[in-house]
């Protein structure tokens, strides 16, 4: 059975990979609310590539995670939900690509986009699912 690498070993490996390089580290859809772990992680990266102006971007839908992250940085950007027509554009692109959307599917597609409630990932996933179903035939 392969040996499981410890958290400390993973962080050290990441630090080795990033040291001396300019980087953008994206931590997407974070839900962990243990501030001690985040402080330890961010602290371990301090001093790595400081002169290179590197960034760590964290995305979350949990306000408590945002509050914990503010300990390390005071920059916060709250994104708004997309409008229904923007979700429709994403859904349509994923479902049809460059092909023309059949007229009979325009209204149905827009109603599906409204169900996405402004979430681009939902529109993208649903569009991909519809693409796989061959709905334009």
What would your notes on this structure say?
Keywords: Leucine-rich repeat, Plant defense. With 137 residues, the chain is mainly alpha-helical. The protein folds into 2 domains: 7-71, no CATH class; 84-132, no CATH class. It has 6 helices and 2 strands; from the N terminus they run αβαβαααα. The protein has helices spanning 7-18, 35-45, 63-69, 84-96, 103-115, 120-132, and strands at residues 24-27, 55-58. The chain has a two-stranded parallel sheet. The longest helix has 13 residues, at 84-96. The radius of gyration is 21 Å and the shape is elongated. The model has no long low-confidence stretch (mean pLDDT 82).
SSE topology sketch:
Blueprint lengths: L6 H12 L5 E4 L7 H11 L9 E4 L4 H7 L14 H13 L6 H13 L4 H13 L5
Parallel strand pairs: 1-2
Keywords: Leucine-rich repeat, Plant defense
InterPro entries: Apaf_helical, NB-ARC, P-loop_NTPase
GO molecular function: ADP binding
How many helices does DSSP assign? 6
- What strand order characterises the main sheet? 1-2
What percentage of amino acids are in beta strands? Answer: 5-15%
Give the number of domains.
2
Structural class based on helices, strands and sheet pairing: mainly alpha
Q: Quick gist of this model?
A:
This protein has helices spanning 7-18, 35-45, 63-69, 84-96, 103-115, 120-132; strands at 24-27, 55-58.
List keywords for this structure.
137 residues, mainly alpha, 2 strands, NB-ARC
């Amino acid at each position: 059975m392969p040996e499981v690498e410890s958290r400390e070993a993973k962080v050290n490996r990441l630090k080795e990979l990033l040291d001396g390089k300019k980087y953008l580290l994206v931590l997407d859809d974070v839900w962990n609310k243990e501030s001690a772990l985040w402080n330890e992680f961010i602290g371990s990266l301090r001093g790595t590539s400081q002169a290179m102006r590197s960034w760590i971007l964290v995305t979350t839908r949990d306000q408590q995670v945002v509050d914990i992250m503010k300990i390390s940085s005071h920059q916060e950007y709250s994104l708004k939900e997309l409008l229904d027509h923007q979700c429709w554009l994403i859904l349509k692109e994923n479902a049809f690509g460059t092909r023309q959307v059949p007229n009979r599917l325009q209204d149905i597609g827009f109603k599906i986009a409204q169900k996405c409630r402004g979430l681009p990932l939902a529109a993208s996933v649903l569009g991909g699912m519809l693409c796989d179903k061959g709905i334009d035939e």
